[in-house]
Amino acid sequence: MKVIKNYLYNVGYQILLMLTPLITTPYVSRVLGAHNNGINTYTNGWVTFFYLVGQLGITLYGNREIAYKRENKLERSKLFWEMISLQIITSTLSLLLYLIIFMFISSNLKEYFLMQSLWIVAYGIDISWYFMGMEDFKKTVTRNTVMKILSVILIFLLVKSKNDLIKYIFLLGFSQLAGSITLWPYLKGSVQWVKFKELHPFKHFYPALLLFIPTITTQIYFVVNRIMLGKMGPQSAVAQFDFGDKIVKLVLAIVTATGTVMLPHIANKFAVGDTEGIKKSLNNSFDYVTALSIPMMFGLMAISNKFSVWFLGNQYGPTGNIIFLEAPAILIIAWSNVTGVQYLMPIHKEHEYTISVTVGAIINILVNFFLIPKFGANGAALATVISEFSILLVQWNFIKNLNFKNKLATGLK
């Protein structure tokens, strides 16, 4: 029942994430234009690398480790203070490096890069991983919902023309920062103070680093396509791909919401040795995501071309083809979410998980080099599908002894 409740909280927030662009995207795409939206996408792509380096895999590592020690308040409190200390230290170093590179070495986009740095600060003090590990999704969902609604209101009030791009970037970054700050008061009563001399934050550096590798490589699909498009084509192509990719990922988010909920759930079962419970949960999860993702995939493909022009405007006509080509990733990622995030990660198979996403990242880059020059944004969409499918195949090999492997094999035929 707790898993279902947490899933409903999480999927409710994912639905909000879907509704928000339905309100803001048509407005922002027209007011700022494809060129300015491309600048936002390009600069945000770079800052994404730096805030991920700052977090150092602690989002996944903290989620899992807190789930392991959930029942012991002293142990989880010590764990929390050690990990947040490490996260603040690494995020500070990442912020300094980012500012040095983009403020003293880089380009004519300095003001946009500077405003994007809010994301590094926001993720540097983010503690949502603690509440996920505690399987307390109500707090994170409530916080995110309030901040998301507030940011939407401010976008309509303050972003009025193409000259307001800097305001738009600030609002997005500041809402993320405010959301991170508002979670801290909820720690009262759940975490106790631990003497500083008892803390050893750097002992978590290596295990967190191991999870940082799959985290950063996973983001390659989100970032590299955009950066390569920005280098090889016009900024408008970046925006067209970005909106198409986001629409696909927003639909996908309803499916992958199960992974966010199941990771700490499976980790806790693993900690107490409930092997049968793990297998049962994963079988149910696989059945569910398959039944949900197939109609979503085909439904999005059916409406892609007409929807893109109606939703985004005439200058985003090419986005329809991008959505159509990338839609199969919904089913592929749904399956790999079960095999990777819901199984390999919680049971300390991060090495296998890292191998799978590294293979996908390498294939993504290589395929982009061949497809983007010839097909532009459509090539980037195809590269995404190909790389995600390669991840699934590698993970399928690692989980071949699991009972639900037969279902996956059937689905791949």
Q: Could you please describe the fold and organization of this structure?
A:
The chain has 413 residues and is mainly α. 83% of the residues lie in helices and 0% in strands. It has 17 helices and no strands. Helix 5 (118-124) runs parallel beside helix 8 and helix 11 runs parallel beside helix 16. The longest helix has 54 residues, at 2-55.
Characteristic key phrases:
413 residues, mainly alpha
Query: Helical stretch count?
Result: 17
Q: What is the first-to-last residue Cα distance?
A: 34 Å
Radius of gyration: 21 Å
User: Unreliable segments (pLDDT under 50, ≥5 consecutive)?
Assistant: 403-413
Beta strands, count: 0
**H and E order:** HHHHHHHHHHHHHHHHH
Question: Helical residue percent?
Answer: over 70%
| Percent of residues in beta strands | under 5%
Largest sheet: none
The structural class is mainly alpha
Mean pLDDT: 82
Shape: globular
Protein topology:
Blueprint: H1 2-55, H2 58-68, H3 73-105, H4 110-116, H5 118-124, H6 128-133, H7 137-158, H8 165-183, H9 205-218, H10 220-232, H11 235-271, H12 275-312, H13 319-326, H14 329-344, H15 350-375, H16 377-398, H17 405-412
